[in-house]
Design a protein that fits this description.
HAD_sf, hydrolase, six-stranded parallel beta sheet, about 210 residues, two-stranded antiparallel ribbon, 8 strands, 2 domains, hydrolase activity, alpha/beta, HAD-like_sf
Length: about 210
């Protein structure tokens, strides 16, 4: 009999990303990160001039961070423990929007924090990748956790019967990003693991009851 399956994002769900990224930018790149709205593309500016970075420079900074600075990322409070508790009742895989060459790096990074899980990399909307994972695992129930509304929308547009939780554990982002629950693409919006875990376990229990 198949088990339930949790498909979880990593950055801002399991590990902090924006806060160590911000610190690295300020310390070494001459860039200030300040999120004042929901437009990430305007959050990075040069310290000397105040000019917003061009898109190609933003991608360069992100690439540089993931190439050499992933060691700076630390777990969101309760995330690793929460995944451990979920694994008693469900299989867990990670779906992260990193280029494929960083799949092994992400796997090793999570292992260093005590999470031994299969990692799928993806670029762009996550719906098609989710569908491929579900076709492989054929779970009795699927629950998708992500911090960005567009991925919940993609999940719902691609897969009708998937439970989705919008969780953003990064206070620098959480107040500003679009809410997938408000837009109707997530079953709940919970930004802390101490509250998310009981909700997730309850969703799993619904399936097994």
């Amino acid at each position: 009999m198949s088990r339930p399956l949790i498909i979880s994002d990593c950055d801002e769900v399991l590990l902090y990303m924006v806060s160590p990224f911000r610190d690295w930018l300020a310390e070494t790149q001459g860039v200030e990160f300040r999120m004042e709205g929901n437009d990430f593309s305007r959050a990075l500016s040069w310290q000397d001039s105040g000019e917003v970075l061009a898109p190609e420079d933003i991608w360069k900074m992100l690439g540089g961070f993931f190439d050499t600075e992933m060691y700076r990322q630390t777990p969101i409070p309760g995330a690793i423990e929460g995944i451990g508790a979920l694994r008693e009742h469900a299989d867990v895989v990670i779906l992260t929007n990193l280029v494929d060459k960083r799949q092994e790096m992400r796997t090793a990074q999570l292992l260093e924090h005590g999470l031994d899980a299969r990692v799928f990399t993806n670029q762009g909307p996550k719906g098609p990748a989710l569908q491929a994972i579900l076709e492989e695992y054929r779970p009795s129930k699927a629950i998708f956790i992500d911090d960005l509304a567009q991925h919940h929308r993609s999940a719902r547009e691609t897969i009708g019967n998937i439970t989705t939780l919008h969780l953003c554990g990064e206070p620098l982002l959480a107040p500003y990003i679009d809410c997938a629950h408000t837009s109707g693409h997530a079953d709940a919006r919970i930004d802390s693991w101490d509250k998310a875990l009981p909700w997730l376990l309850g969703e799993i229990e619904k399936e097994t009851a």
